[in-house]
Each structure stands twice: as C-alpha cells, then as structure tokens.
Amino acid sequence: MSSVLCLFCAWLTYRAIQKSNCYHREGHNAPCSYEDTSSMLLFGAVQVVMSQIPDFHNMKWLSMLAAIMSFAYSFIGFGLGLAQVIKNGTIKGSINGVPAANIADKLWLVFQALGDIAFAYPYSGIVLEIQDTLKSPPPENKTMKKASIIAVSLTTFFYLCCGCFGYAAFGNNTPGNLLTGFGFYEPYWLVDLANACIILHLVGGYQIFGQPVFAFAERWFINRFPNSWFVNNYYTNKHRWFPSFQTNPLKICFRTAYVASTTAIAMMFPYFNQVLGVLGALNFWPLAIYFPVEMRIVQKKIQSWTRKWVALKSFSFVCLLVTIVAFIGSIQGLINAKFE
After folding, report:
1. 265-304 pLDDT, tens per residue?
2. Cα–Cα distance list, 158 to 75, 126, 164, 187, 300 (Å)
3. Is 274 strand, coil or helix?
4. What are the boundaries of each domain within the chain?
C-alpha cells in the first residue's frame, strides 16, 4: 500500500511542477490542468529498473539520496510557511480548526485527519529489514534503537513545523499538501525544486517499502520450488559501460509484475488526503501497534493481568479504535471526493 502511495504522490508532484510553471507564465488564475497519467507510467518504468536492486544491502546510495531529498523539501516547506506567516503579519486559523456545516461533518474531518496522522510513522514494517543490514559491534538492536529515536524525533519536528506553520499561514484555506496543493506559488523555482526533491525521495521510498515484499515473496518461492531453474538460477550480465550484475528470471518477472500492479492501482485513486488516510488507517494498528506490543509482551514474558500487561493491552485497544474511526472517516471522504 505504501508503494501505491509513492506512485500516486510522484504523479501528483510532477503535475504540480507543470502547474507551477504554467501559473508563473500565465498567472495564478490560469486554467492550468494536467490530468495525463503518463508521468505515473514513467515513474513506474523507473521503478521497474530500480526494483532489480538485489536487496537492502545494496541500497545505501539510494537511501542516502532519499534522506537528503527529504531534508531538502522539508526545510523548503518549513521556510516557505514561516515566510508566509511573517508576510501576513498575523497567525491565521484557530484552535477549533476548519469549520464544518454540522457536528457530523466535523467528526468525519477529524476521523480523516487521524488517518493522515497515522500514516506519518509507517516504518515499523521495515525496521527489522533495515536492522538486518547493520554491522556489529555495537549490537544491531542498540544501533537501531538509537536510529529510531533520532528518526522519529526529526520526523515529528518537521511534521509539526510544516503542519503548524502551514495552518498559521493559510488558516482554513490550507491545502492538503503545501507544496503540491499550491499553498505557495512563488518563488516558483523554489517550489519546483522542492517538488523535484519529493520525486527523488519517492524513488527511494518506493524501494524501501517494496524490498521487504520482494524478499518475502522470493523466499517463499525458493522454499516452495527448490529445484526450479526459474527460481534459483542466476545469470551474470556484463557491459563495458556498467558494472557486471546478476539477474534471475523470478526476480525480473515478479518485481516487474509488482510494480505494474501498484502502478495500475495508484492510477485508480487520485485523491491525495483520502487515500493517505485509508492507507494510514490500514497500516497503523496492525503493523505499528499490535505486532510490536505483542512481541514486547512475549519478549519480556509479561504475565497476563499485571499492570504492564493491562497498560500495553489498553494502549493497543485505544489505537485499534483510532484505526477504525480513521478508516471509516477516510472511506467517507474518498466516496465524497469520488462523487462530488
């Protein structure tokens, strides 16, 4: 699901770059509309090539590029929001948030927002895969714990800064995405740069979420068909302009089919916030809460109905409720966006 969102976001971002240049040339009220999905197909084609990276161990350069791009567009979004607040000379919006016609509509918006927030930390599904690439000493789990604390702290800082300053800058008119939703038109080149950084970040993001799927599926095929040449044979390719590399028929076919299927699904759901909320809700409780909590209970051998057991189970149950209401709210928003 995260792979689908990466594809969709890449298409949305590329379209924003086209619109940004159009608005700069023809004015902010110009009818600049770009609904062509060829850019999504192009991104999918890039991912077909990138998906042939063997595994996480060979993704160091791509991960570093994605991290740099992430910092770049986050700083730009934060800076543009702060500059807009200073330019306005006042803080827009209110503690009550975006008004709604009635309480029911307000609840739907709150539920959808919970889904958006839930999607902010979907990395738990790949933590063990990343940890497997670390060297020791020190122990991998200690290194990963330190890395997770730093990563979550930085992510929270930038999300809060971009979200708070974006709302302070535009109030109730804040777009779902400050950069692709045109909270900012000028300087257009800076907005284009930030969006280009997003696209490059998504190239790496897609692979980070896709590699665990590839690894799981390929392990299953190897165990299921241990004598198959299609599954187990590797062929070395040499080219005078590129380093030699190995290919495997299963990897080529399965990974290409995976990218093609996620591209097709992404083309069916062109509603950013609503899709974000749905995917966030589906990922949040099972991957980020339930399994880590259950593993903690088993690892530490926490007895049933002890204080720690009750606290962990209560936390998991509350997060389950958040997931349910976020999913319902996001589905309602997706239906409204589809038929409005």
Report:
1. 777 765 555 666 666 677 778 877 888 888 889 988 888 8
2. 8, 21, 10, 21, 33
3. helix
4. 1-339
d(CA 124, CA 109): 26
CA distances from 218 to 2, 47, 97, 191, 336 (A): 19, 18, 47, 40, 39
DSSP letters of 73-125?
HHHHHHHHHHHHHHHHTS--S-TT-S--SSHHHHHHHHHHHHHHHHTT-GGGG
Pairwise CA distance, residues 306 & 308, whole Å: 6
What number of H helices and E strands is found in the chain? Answer: 12, 2
Residue 176 exposure: Cα atoms within 13 Å on the Cβ side: 16
Does the pTM exceed 0.70?
Answer: yes
Task: Report the distance separating Cα 195 and Cα 73, nearest Å.
Answer: 7
The strand pair at 235-239 and 242-247 is best described as antiparallel
Cβ-based neighbour number of residue 114 at 10 Å: 23
Check: CB of residue 161 under 8 Å from CB of residue 63.
no
Polymer length of the chain: 340
Closest CA to 55 of 143, 159, 162, 129: 129
Q: How many CB atoms lie within 10 A of CB 183?
A: 21
Residue 165 carries which side chain, given as an amino acid letter?
A: F
Residue 257: HSE in the Cβ half-sphere, 13 Å Cα cutoff:
9
Calpha distance 295→127 (Å, rounded): 14
Q: What is the dihedral of CA 299, 305, 309, 310, to 10 degrees?
A: 170
Nearest to 161 by CA among 54, 261, 85: 85
Q: List, for residues 84-93, the tens digit of each pLDDT value.
A: 888 888 888 7
**Alpha carbon 180 to chain centroid, angstroms:** 15
